[in-house]
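worker-3 :: picked Mannose-P-dolichol utilization defect 1 protein homolog
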Amino acid sequence: MHLPFFLERPAVAIIGEVCYTSLIENLNYKDVPCIKYGISKGLGLGIVAGGAIVKVPQIIKIVQAQSAEGVSFSSYMLETLASVISLAYNIRQQNPLSTYGETFFVTIQNLIILSLMMFYRGKGTNAFAILSSFLFLGTIVARTSEIQTADGAVVTTALISQGMLTILQALTIPINLFSKVPQIVANYKNGSTGQLSAFTVFNYFAGSLARVYTTLTEVDDMIILAGFMLSTLFNCVLAFQMALYWNAPKTKAGEAVPGEKGASGSGKKKAKKFD
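worker-3 :: tokens ->
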């Protein structure tokens, strides 16, 4: 079977010439390796597309409420730090874009959410400082340059060596896990998920689960695989809390959730807190 050229080229670009010939032209559906690879590529592209909008509902929810009550500031700071490092690591490793592309979009959305948190607390200057710091860190970690030696050889140099970057990538595992802990604790203490977006939480869980499969299929890197496996576990806890507290109208302390009628003055004060 032959696809029209405007479909053939994207298909070849996604699954490669060999698997395209086997699965599309020869209809060889017993080619298990190519089937697994095709599924992995499809999931990967879906995750990247989902990553472009995964936190948009969270952003909208904060803007509409003009409050980030219930959303952990420390969780987002840690998650953004891990995302910046992971993005630089994957770029330097030249991994397929389908295995990490959503990290770029998530990082941008996290920076927007952090800025909104600071803005609604009346600290716009701090928002600018946070944005600048993360952008500077990403540039330093990802930047490489090529130098031609006297004998004509091309040597790649970087401000952060590949060995150091590998260590930083390994550190993103505990950073990512710890980034979930403040949010999990806050949900438990409040008996509510506040302004936390259900769309974001459930999509994060599904995405991290799918990333375990795509990493196993396309990337031979135990550091990245271990990170996604543990992240899936913690995202599962957050998804469970979201379901558990779905209709919870009040915090555990019995205070009205900010935004509802009858919210007390002390409840409004708590809206100023990040965690």
